[in-house]
Amino acid sequence: MSTVRSEALDPNDWIARENRKRLEANRVFSLNLISGPGAGKTTLLERTVVRMRDWTRMAVISGVVHRGGDAERVRRHGVQVEVVQTTGAGHLDSPGISRALDAIDLPRIDLLFIENVGDLIGPAEVDLGQAMKVVVLAATEGEDNPLKYPDAFRRAAALVLTKIDLLQHLDFSAPAAIRRARTVNPELLTFPISCYTGEGLEAWTDWLTNQVTVRHRVARA
Amino acid sequence: MSTVRSEALDPNDWIARENRKRLEANRVFSLNLISGPGAGKTTLLERTVVRMRDWTRMAVISGVVHRGGDAERVRRHGVQVEVVQTTGAGHLDSPGISRALDAIDLPRIDLLFIENVGDLIGPAEVDLGQAMKVVVLAATEGEDNPLKYPDAFRRAAALVLTKIDLLQHLDFSAPAAIRRARTVNPELLTFPISCYTGEGLEAWTDWLTNQVTVRHRVARA
């Protein structure tokens, strides 16, 4: 006879842990992309998928609040996109991700993007089982967003600063925004990117490729 | 002896109703400004306050998630700003507004702006007791936001489309965004505005002045 200790784990966190085990067992590198509405997550995914599809097998789980969304924009580049509706909630949750994972052939992919709904608050708190969170901030938003919405920046491994082609027309200082983000999270990697001109995309896809490769190398070792 | 019927009103809605009664009793016109992070609510408030302060007595309740925020930016124009912390939540609630109203001399103001935290999802659902909700969308966000976050647009009386000076540099069609917003809410008033050039501000402050005046006229009648 043995005694079972209750772990008092939140059900979302319990299911997130299961998701993480499934992803790791299949050597899938997974990112949970978090941003406010309209920061450019879908355009970033489109550009990323087109750059990487020759050597990386990818899938996307895309969160929408009600309907609509941009699944078709990514799907047309030949990538599987599973849509998860939050039906009003401001973030995806781990059970939704678990169901979406059921529809993806995990042993056949290397890289999974989870595109959260457009919200800097809810998604920052909620674990989905991803390997890393990535926060996406547009240069057209405020430099102060890292201080106003610190959780999203604190819990992210990387910051993608989008729409930098517009910096010349804006009162926005990229170094100031990055400095503020690093006040909250000194370890934050930063990728300033213009999906319009392509500037910065190479550093981003190099980093992703590296993360994927490391996982395959570990798998072979 | 009488029978009391339970109204089964949500506590937030109950307190919102009390807030609304207080504001109406004092002939205060009140707006709940809702947008994603970085859409430009604070800059809009700054420009609005400076244009209207000679003939309108205003106050602002400003929501922040943790700390920071932009209260000082508005306060320096001579307007009382009460800050309400949501401590992690993605929207203001009616008890927070009730406490902030305690700190404002309501008979001495005409117009109250409630600047919600930067989020298009939570704030759309939650009644604070305001006369009207106003949704603020930046031209630098997606044209599709009205379809992706329909509640915010459905429950608003007006849409302020900010940062229109950047339209020339963007793949964003203001008519398309407004058309999509009107699919969700055919009654929506729209104010395209550049706080940078000043374009469109007059129509917005004229409308606000009109709303305030109507309330004073009713009060005198």
Commentary on this structure:
The first copy, chain A, has 221 residues and is an alpha/beta fold. Chain A contains nine helices and seven strands; from the N terminus they run αβαβαβαβαβααβαβα. Chain A has helices at residues 11-25, 41-52, 71-75, 94-102, 122-125, 145-148, 150-154, 174-184, 201-220; strands at residues 29-34, 58-64, 80-85, 111-115, 132-138, 158-162, 189-192. Chain A has a seven-stranded parallel β-sheet with strand order 3-2-4-1-5-6-7, with helices on both faces. In chain A, α1 (11-25) packs parallel to α4 and α2 (41-52) crosses α9 (201-220). Chain A is globular. The first copy, chain A, starts with 10 loop residues before the first helix and ends with a helix. The mean pLDDT of chain A is 93. At the A-B interface, α6 of A face α6 of B.
Helix and strand topology:
The structure is a homodimer of 221-residue chains.
Chain A: H1 11-25, E1 29-34, H2 41-52, E2 58-64, H3 71-75, E3 80-85, H4 94-102, E4 111-115, H5 122-125, E5 132-138, H6 145-148, H7 150-154, E6 158-162, H8 174-184, E7 189-192, H9 201-220
Parallel strand pairs in A: 1-4, 1-5, 2-3, 2-4, 5-6, 6-7
Helix pairs in contact in A: 1-4, 2-9
The helix content of chain A, as a percent range, equals 25-40%
Give the CA-based shape of chain A. Answer: globular
| Rg from alpha-carbon coordinates of chain A | 17 Å
List unreliable stretches of 5+ residues of chain A.
Answer: none
Query: What is the count of DSSP helices of chain A, taking H or I runs of 4+ residues?
Result: 9
Number of strands of chain A: 7
Oligomer: homodimer
Indicate the proportion of strand residues of chain A: 15-25%
Strand order of the largest sheet of chain A: 3-2-4-1-5-6-7
Main beta sheet strand tally, sense and closure of chain A: 7 strands, parallel
- Largest interface: chains, residues each: A-B, 37 and 37 residues
Mean pLDDT of chain A: 93
What separation lies between the terminal Cα atoms of chain A?
39 Å
The helix-strand sequence of chain A is HEHEHEHEHEHHEHEH
The assigned structural class of chain A equals alpha/beta
